[in-house]
Structures are given as structure tokens and as C-alpha cells.
Amino acid sequence: MRASDWLQLFVSGLAIGTVYGMLALGFVTIYRASRVVNFAQGDFAMLGGLFTVYLLKTVHLPYPLAGVLAVVITSTIGILIYQLVIAPLGRASLVSMLMVTIGASLFLQNGALIAWTSYPADLPSFSGDAPIRLGTIAILPQSLWIFLMAAVVVTALYLLTNHTLLGKAMTATATDPLAAAVVGVSTSSMMRLSFAISASVGALTGLFLAPMLTLNYASGAILGIKGLTALTLGGWGTATGAIVGGLALGVIETFGAGLLPAGYKDAIAFLILILILYFRPSGILGSAGSEELSLD
Fold this sequence. Notes:
Layout: H1 3-34, H2 41-57, H3 63-86, H4 94-116, E1 132-134, E2 137-139, H5 141-163, H6 165-175, H7 177-182, H8 187-209, H9 219-234, H10 239-259, H11 265-279
């Protein structure tokens, strides 16, 4: 392969890697406030995309309004999952929490199958499909929209976490919920908020991804695995690691697809997950034994 081909693969990998980073960031957002690893995170992305398709093509709402409503609906579903599934368990064990989020994921997938069948759905690109040429490199306009969305989301979460009392209350809830409650923090409200934010990030990711990849009821499972792999690769100790891990996973996958048959692309994520867990469980930016998650 020529150098220009490798550079093209690298740019394409950054685009899909940004998506993986956003999915990983959704895991971080919930984990920061509740110490829950939500296996339904990928399904939020699936729902965001499919709700937008339904509102746009069936209800015939304007594209921007359909997208906003899809994010709001998915965010509401995220709150309901916390209220009906997570909250009743209280401070249950990690295994119990993992099992109920897996159950919630299966429920959402089967609900989507009933609502939209198994046929794949996609969305039109936000600003056309004609690639933007930078020398020998072609960049799809939708990729630029994904980069912009990621920049806005990361900036907003950074400001929320580090420069607002609300963000500090979410961090306090995760660090010591009893002490947070003593000083007047509503821990249940902080957890509901974390699920709402995480679902919104997931829905936005699905909305921006749908013009590039078709989605169906089962897409959430593989997207969730990719997000979890990205977070493990980057490191659980920092949300910056989620972005770095996502970008790294996207580039590695794209290079792998350029060298191997296309059917091996998804297997690369599983292989990376196994290798990282074996050789460096803390990830690229994580520190051994660290559980604190921040956006610094």
C-alpha cells in the first residue's frame, strides 16, 4: 500500500474512533456518579439513530427537530432505566449491577426489534455525501460533523465536571454517597442526571453515526462492546482515556481492515480487549489501582 493509502485509512480511523470515544465517554459519565458499568450504553446509540429515522421518515418531522426529540426520548429512557432497574437495587454488588444492565440491554434490543423489525435503517448525511479533498485524502462531510459533535460534548462535560457545583456533586456522589448526602447532595438526583447525560451522549452518537453506517435493533450490542473496549484501552481512570482509547481503537481497526478480510474487523476489538486486560488492565492513560474518573 502507498503512503497516501495509509494516511486515508488513518483519517477514516479517526472518524470511527471518535464514535467509539463518545460511546466510552457515556460509560464514564454513568460510572463517575454511580460506579455502575452500564451495558445498555450501546443501545442508547442504537435508539438515538432509530428514533431519528422514525421521526424523520415516518412522522415527517424536520431533520433537526427529529434529532432533538430522539435525544430527549432516549434520555428519558435512560432515566427510566435508572429509576426502575438500578435504583431498586440500592448498593447491590457489582455482579448484580452488571446483570441488570445486561437485562436492560436485552429488553431495549427486543423492544427495538418489535418496533422497527430487523431491517437496517440509515439517515441522509447532514450536508451531502460529496467528499472533501485535501490532496490525495478524501474526508466525508459527515466525519467532520462527528468531530464537531465530539468537541462540543467533551467541552461541555469538562466544564460541567470541573467548573460547576453540579459536576462536583456528581463526583462526590460516586466517591462517598453517604458523605455527599450528609452535606445536602441528592444522590438519587445525581444518578438520574448521570443516566440522562449518558443516554443523551449515546443518542447523539447514534444520530451522527447513522448517516455513515446502517443501524438495526442489534447494533447497540456491538457498539457497546466497542465503547467498552475503547474505555479499557484508554484507561478507566480518566475520561480523556476514553477519547484516546476510542481513537486508538478506530485507527487499529481501520488499519486491520485494510490488511485483513473485512470479516475480521469486529474480531479485532475483541482481540484488543483480551490483550489489554492481560498485559495492561489499567489502559494507556490509566494508573494501576486507580478508580477515580475525571476529565482532566
